[in-house]
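Entry 14. Ran structure prediction on the chain below.
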Amino acid sequence: MNHTIPERKDTDPRFHWHIEDYFKTDADWEAAYASLEKSLPELTAFAGKLADSAETLLSCLKKNESLSLKLDHIYTYASMRMHEDSANAFYQGLASRAELLLIRYSAAVSFLTPEIIAIPEEFRCL
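Output, structure tokens:
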């Protein structure tokens, strides 16, 4: 018995991912990518300032949450597109760029945990 796996284009669309729920077009993905890339300095601007006030810490955490959700969409879209057809060089490129952005994002927020841990105990609320 000879079984072959059909190409995605030959499968029933009912069984495809709904990637358009993330971004309608590749151009929308590009715009989100550029926007997030441009926003990274907004996070690094908080470095060395988290213990200044509760408001500063909260602002940083909210900014981190917002940008992290955007990064999740960017990364997921690129990864899912690449996995639709791993031979597609265009989507391999998008996935690589998303991975690099994830690394840059991780570097940008690397100060968060050490600074939060370093906040003196008398300023922490339990």
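The mean pLDDT is 92. Will compare against last week's run tomorrow.
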